[in-house]
Amino acid sequence: MSLQEDIDFEQMADQVRAENAALLEGFGTWLTESGLKEKTVRRHQGNVSFYIDH
Asked: Do 38 and 32 touch, CB atoms closer than 8 A?
């Protein structure tokens, strides 16, 4: 890969991570509004984050 391709890939990855963060926030809000405790919400968000960002 060229340096430019590496830069393009990193920019795309950063964009995807930002979009994922917004989705995770919405997911957390939904879980909280569904009546789950904060600890459970954080655990679920952490589990989802692990799979979507790695």
From this structure: yes
Please tell me the distance from the alpha carbon of residue 11 to that of residue 13, in angstroms, as a whole number: 5
Contact yes or no for 31/41 (Cβ under 8 A): yes
Distances (CA, A) of 18 to 21, 35, 39: 5, 26, 23
Residues 10-54 pLDDT 10s: 999 999 999 999 999 999 999 999 999 999 999 999 999 999 877
d(CA 42, CA 30): 12
**For the chain, how long is the longest CA-to-CA vector?**
49
* Measured distance CA(47)–CA(49) in Å, rounded: 5
The vertex-16 CA angle with 24 and 32, nearest 5°, equals 5
